[in-house]
From TrEMBL:
Annotated organism of origin: Lasiosphaeria miniovina
Protein name: Cyclin-like f-box protein
Alphabetical UniProt keywords: Signal
Keyword Mitochondrion attached: no
InterPro entries, per the entry: AB_hydrolase_fold
Residues making up the signal peptide according to the UniProt record: 1-19
Span list, region Disordered: 23-49
Biased composition (Low complexity): 30-49
The keyword Transit peptide belongs to this UniProt entry's keyword annotation: no
Length: 344
């Protein structure tokens, strides 16, 4: 695999929509017409890349690499000293492929790319640097490179899962020093479909360790490909399914099916009910719509879960201020058939 890097100017934010981003309209010199003809991918490409500051004062590097023929734009948030001298970050000290003390939390956004620009997992949180990756598709859909959103269908899920795995194992070590035994992956909506449907079954085994896991927000699919070496990750990697009471109608049967499938993989690997319950958990307490975990909004709901990542995924007690439950860490055992109160 060849990786080609390019850096641009200063980072900016975008307000792309959730499923099919609508271009902002302008009345000046026909700009509205021109912008409406652009795909979300083209609009995103117009937003400058480069180096900026994270919410905790650490550094964000916004760059891109060609991985397996796919152009992946991604952002890394961490202390200057953790970046390699090849990254171009001022104050960088690490050598390429050097092991670091901080882990990574790699996020795949939902359809339309909103969470890429929001970057909810930026900053160093409980020993993890944040990484977010932009889908290599014209509509900014994970698992689908061309055409409008097609529901649960993710025809390019295999290629995208492989690209994310290669990005983490081959490209990121050239730019930042991190601890490979502390790798977490977070999915939002469409990103969760690609992680659960393709990445976990085909790729997670190579990253599996007691300090790894996958957080699936507002979306999940049962494995869409053969599960590779489930015994390597079933007994070590955390998987948490986080949804809401008024989830999208098409996801309401898909999420329970995914829960049952991964529970079955763990059981086949020899784990007891108690062991499964510690590693695989589920919650859909919030009385909100799709991704509205704070019962108020899409982006703010995702931010709530991102801010409580350690409590959910890194040995915490699962309490999330803003979710009316003693803990969101309910064992999947006996709770596979989630009940929903409505649909958003």
């Amino acid at each position: 695999m060849r990786a080609i890097f390019s850096l641009a100017a200063l980072l900016a934010l975008s307000s792309l929509g959730l499923a099919a981003p609508s271009p902002k309209k302008s009345k000046a010199n026909g700009a509205a017409s021109s912008q409406q003809q652009q795909t979300p991918q083209q609009q995103a490409a117009a937003i400058p890349q480069g180096i900026s500051q994270a919410t905790d004062g650490s550094t964000i590097l916004d760059t891109n690499a060609t991985v397996n023929g796919l152009n992946l734009r991604f952002k890394i948030s961490g202390p200057e000293s953790a970046f390699t001298t090849a990254s171009g970050v001022a104050g960088s000290k690490a050598r390429a492929r050097a092991a670091g003390t901080l882990g990574l939390n790699v996020l795949l956004h939902g359809d339309g790319g909103q969470s890429f620009f929001d970057f909810p997992n930026q900053a160093v949180q409980n020993g993890l640097m944040g990484v977010v990756v932009l889908a290599p598709s014209e509509q900014l859909l994970w698992g689908q490179h061309a055409g409008p959103p097609a529901g649960l269908s993710r025809v390019d899920g295999v290629a995208d899962a492989q690209a994310v795995a290669d990005l983490v194992s081959t490209v990121l070590p050239q730019l930042v020093a991190f601890d490979p035994a502390q790798l977490f992956f977070t999915g939002v909506s469409g990103g969760s479909l690609t992680l659960s449907g393709f990445f976990i079954p085909a790729q997670l085994a190579q990253f599996a360790a007691p300090g790894t896991g996958v957080l699936l927000m507002c979306g999940a699919l049962e494995p869409q490909v053969d599960v590779v070496n489930a015994s390597a990750f079933a007994g070590t990697s955390r998987i948490h399914f986080q949804s809401t009471q008024q989830e999208l109608a098409l996801l309401q049967p898909a999420i329970p099916a995914a829960i049952a499938a991964y529970e079955a993989e763990a059981r086949a690997a020899g784990l007891s009910d108690a062991q499964i319950g510690l590693l695989q958990t589920v919650d859909n307490t919030p009385d909100g719509g799709h991704c509205e975990f704070d019962e108020e909004g899409f982006s703010s709901g995702i931010q709530l879960i991102a801010d409580n990542f350690a409590s959910i995924m890194q040995g915490g007690d699962g309490t999330v201020e803003g979710i009316n439950a003693p803990t969101v860490l309910t064992s999947v055992v006996g709770n596979e058939n989630l009940q929903f109160s409505g649909a958003s």
